[in-house]
Amino acid sequence: MQGRILQVGVILGILALWEGLPQSGVINPNFLTPLSDVVATLWQLVVSGQLAQHAAISLQRIAYGLGVSILIGVPLGLGMGWWRTLEQAFDGPLQAGRQISAFALFPVFILFFGIGEVSKVVIVFWASVWPIILNTTAGVKGVDAVLVRAARSMNANGWTLLRKVVIPAAAPSIFTGIRLGGAYAFMVLVAAEMIGANAGLGFLVLNSQEVFRIPQMYAAIVALVIFGLALNRLLLGIERSATSWRQEAGA
To answer: What parts of the sequence cross the membrane (predicted)?
Structure first.
């Protein structure tokens, strides 16, 4: 409880400084818009439908890129964690690939896929797939061997063992990877939309700065924070729902 109070106090203090410093002239309000003006501008973006339009485009790109990452990363991670031969075959290329920044590869993606939607989905995929693979692999490897032996003693083998024992036991680690992938996806997409896009939240931030609509720029940044937190909460809610049996078992 005390930690929660301290957390709220720090947030309120930051918001108060945001409002007070430009209002008092300590910071030029042309560079740091007062919080009250940012909130008013954000509301205007909501009412006009402009925010919803840009947000829908960004969220669609994230959904496609993160969705493909899950479809590829989770099965590959399960296989690498369960079959040592598969891990030995893929570990080297995966360790090398995860060292390459998605930003460094963005020119390559544009070269191959153009400056349209596909390149943005691919960069989201590249950024988000690695934590999913690695956390899924680690989750499978961390499954209690006693559970596996007990299941095998009851003639559970192959897909049944994987589905009934391994995947449920590794689920928390898998969902941690998905949440990390979602966070990385959001970050790289915003940067990608600043480089080559005519719509999206990242584009809205950069375009507002270029035409010197500073309150709108800060409003778009606040919207990014809100949507990022909402995405994390959504994934956390899905994780809790999918692993509710663990809480019931521990009760």
So the answer is: 63-83, 103-127, 183-205, 217-236
Spell out the residues 6+ positions from residue 28 whose beta carbon is closer than 8 angstroms to its own: 22
Region label for 200, one of left (φ > 0), alpha (ψ between -120 and 50) or beta (otherwise):
left
Provide φ and ψ at 22, rounded to 5°: -70, -30
**Integer Cα distance of 149 and 127 in angstroms:** 36
94 contacts 133 by C-beta, under 8 angstroms: yes
**Residue boundaries of the structural domains of the chain:** 1-32, 33-242
pLDDT tens, residue by residue, 182-203: 888 888 888 888 877 788 888 8
Instruction: Record the tokens describing residue 219, joined without a space.
Output: 């409003």
Sign of torsion over alpha carbons 111, 112, 116, 120: negative
Q: What is the pLDDT of residues 22-32, one digit of tens each?
A: 888 888 888 88
So what's the pLDDT on residue 133?
Answer: 93
Contacts 24+ apart (CB under 8 A), 233-236: 235/175, 235/178, 235/179, 235/182, 236/179
Give the residue ranges of DSSP H helices in the chain. Answer: 2-24, 35-48, 50-82, 84-97, 102-113, 117-141, 145-153, 158-161, 167-195, 201-210, 214-242, 244-250
Domain at 33-242, CATH class: mainly alpha
Q: Is residue 112 helix, strand or coil?
A: helix
Q: To the nearest whole number, what is the mean pLDDT of the chain?
A: 85
Q: 126: which 2 tokens? A: 């590249």
